[in-house]
Structure formats: structure tokens, C-alpha cells
Amino acid sequence: MIAFISGVAVDRGIDYVVVDNHGIGYQVFCGNPEMVTLNESIIFHTYQHVREDAIILFGFVEKRELDIFRQLITVKGVGPKTGITILSRFSGDDIIRAIDQEDMAFLKKLPGVGPKMASQMMLDLKGKFIASDTPSSSTKALPLVDEALDALGDLGFKKVELNNIKHELSLLNLDSVDDMIKEGLKLLHSRKRGL
């Protein structure tokens, strides 16, 4: 099982990005590939889907999006392609809220989801997700992380690069923006070197 892949984005199509990892190009299906900057470092958290005729990688910049995707595809009728299309158009947190609040009108707006599937999603997934606003060490750190990422953006780093390190920074439990910036620079430089 491939849990994540990091490397340089060398090509992209309508629904995929090709990541060069030490001379091997991995085709990673993802939402909104047009937001990925070519020839920049990237990391995808991946779901490996095995079929009789193919092994397919679905990738997510945020680990939380992958976790939500894994839950979505447990619902009967929601395959990986439907799941990734849903998450490319709506935020994971909005989907979770709609499921937990039984917001049928919102769920029916999701691509490929009708009344029957919306009901199934509520039945199967209500209460299964951990809310992102639950107090924790990582969520308490988010305002500092965002401030540090803004500063790194001012230094010329691309948004996709910064999104790639956001989760790791939030887990470091640092108390100051300066420390976050220093650690962010280390992470960004190690990614550029392919470490």
C-alpha cells in the first residue's frame, strides 16, 4: 500500500498529476490538478485502488481530505472517482456538517448523489467523522501555522508547497510564529532536495 508520494510535479491532465519520484513518474488522480504548479515539489497522501485491470493512485494534499474520502467510498454506490469529484468541488468539512445535520438539500448538490444515495450517506456516515474544530494540539496551533505560512508566502513560496507542509507544522506544537517559520523553511528545503 502506498500511503503517500512526494516528488516534483512534471505533468498534469484533466484529472491527474504526474509526480517524478527519483526518476519514476507516478500518475496520481486528484481534484483540481490545475492548481498544482509544474516543476515544484509536492506531496500527495494517497489511496491505492486495485482493480483487475489497473492499480490507480488517488491523491490528496491534505491528510484530512484522504480520511474523509476513505469514509465516503464505504457508502454503497460511491466509488473512488465519485468520491474524489465530490471533494474537488466541496470542502470536506461542509460535507461532514451536511451529513451530521442531515442536510438532504446540500447532499443532493454533490456530483453523482441523488436522494437515495444522500440518505445512504447519512445512514452510514453520521457521527463517524471527528470534527475539525475539536480542540487539540494541532488545531490550537492552526492560527500560528497560518501566520507562518503567510510569511513564507511573502518570501516567494508557492501556495501548493505551503499546503504540503501545513499538516506537519500543525503537529509540531511550537509556541511562536518565528519557530514555525524556521521549521517551515527546513521542511520546504528538504522537500526541494527530495528528502
UniProtKB/TrEMBL annotation:
Example GO molecular function: ATP binding
Region annotation Domain III: where it falls in the sequence: 137-195
GO biological processes: DNA recombination; DNA repair
Domain Helix-hairpin-helix DNA-binding motif class: 70-89, 105-124
Keywords: Cytoplasm, DNA damage, DNA recombination, DNA repair, DNA-binding, Hydrolase
Homology family: Belongs to the RuvA family.
Subunit structure: Homotetramer. Forms an RuvA(8)-RuvB(12)-Holliday junction (HJ) complex. HJ DNA is sandwiched between 2 RuvA tetramers; dsDNA enters through RuvA and exits via RuvB. An RuvB hexamer assembles on each DNA strand where it exits the tetramer. Each RuvB hexamer is contacted by two RuvA subunits (via domain III) on 2 adjacent RuvB subunits; this complex drives branch migration. In the full resolvosome a probable DNA-RuvA(4)-RuvB(12)-RuvC(2) complex forms which resolves the HJ.
HAMAP family linked: DNA_HJ_migration_RuvA
Protein name, entry field: Holliday junction branch migration complex subunit RuvA
Gene: ruvA
